[in-house]
Amino acid sequence: MTTTRRLLLAAPALLATPFAASAQERWSPTRPVRIIVGFSPGGTTDIAARILAEFLSHRLGQSVVVENRPGAGGNIANEVVAKGETDGHTLLMQTIGGGAINFPLYGNRMPIKPEDLVALGLLLRVPNAIFVNPSLPVNSLQELVAYARARPGQLNYGSSGLGTSLHMTAELLKMVAEIDITHVPFRGSGPMLQEVLAGRVQMAVDNLPSVVNHLREGRLRPLAVTSATRSPALPNVPTTAEAGFPAVEAVAWFGLQGPARMPAAAVQRYGAEIDAAVKDNGVWSKLADLGGMKPDLTPDGGTSPEGFTRYMAAELQKWTDVVRRARVTLEG
């Protein structure tokens, strides 16, 4: 049975068990909570986790710390949480890569199954940005494509790792624009950005929050954002559709998960607190300034464990189709 079908079949059961604890007493952690991040410090996953950790520390009455466990496109962090303690004190900052793309990409080599983790809440969605080192003589996505077509195999592009939405966005561009560019994966956006800034990697794709300041200040040159509409954080940067490549659309997302056997009352508590976080003016001003978009899984723009479960199942189906269509492999 495919991982996509397994998650879709499991979704009703997931919705029926951990979220059905409304009559239980309100759960609270009894010691510090860890949020495991599958990427290096400095990337969007890390930034979002630290903003959420600060909020949760005040709300839960316990310290909430971020622990970076980079590697394997987020799979190391996936495994740490899925196979770790189940009492609600170890959580995962999940991404589109670790929560959707990796399952069809890694196939039987995935260390976990989708049902090994339970959804708590979606924190934010963000567009990706396609950008270059300013030394590259291109000023638009169309110019980049023309430049790459004239120099097959000579351009390198960076991403935060195999299977991340950054990798997949660039692969979509390669497929749609029919260009030959070489993938250079890193263990997170932080080290990738350093190489692009230094000019050793000519172009890259990154989640907007972790690169937006470099783009605003001219250290890197933005060519397009991958959302359906322009980002308020970079209003002068066109979308990929406006640049002539409407099929290159990808919105990354970041949310909290826990191990599948986590207490139902803990699932509910974390779900409520994440929903409160996205509705908190202080939290959201930080995320919006970085280009974040609301979860929009509830009528008021918020999130819930049930809604995040359904969202992840749909994302798994979507990116399974993309991986197969683009013929992406672990060799990049």
Automatic annotation (TrEMBL):
The region annotated as signal peptide is 1-23
Gene3D superfamilies from the entry?
Answer: Bordetella uptake gene, domain 1 (3.40.190.150), Periplasmic binding protein-like II (3.40.190.10)
Name the domain of life this protein comes from.
Answer: Bacteria
Which keywords label this protein? Signal
- What is the similarity comment for this entry? Belongs to the UPF0065 (bug) family.
What is the name attached to this protein's record?
Tripartite tricarboxylate transporter substrate binding protein
- The organism named in the record is Rhodovarius crocodyli
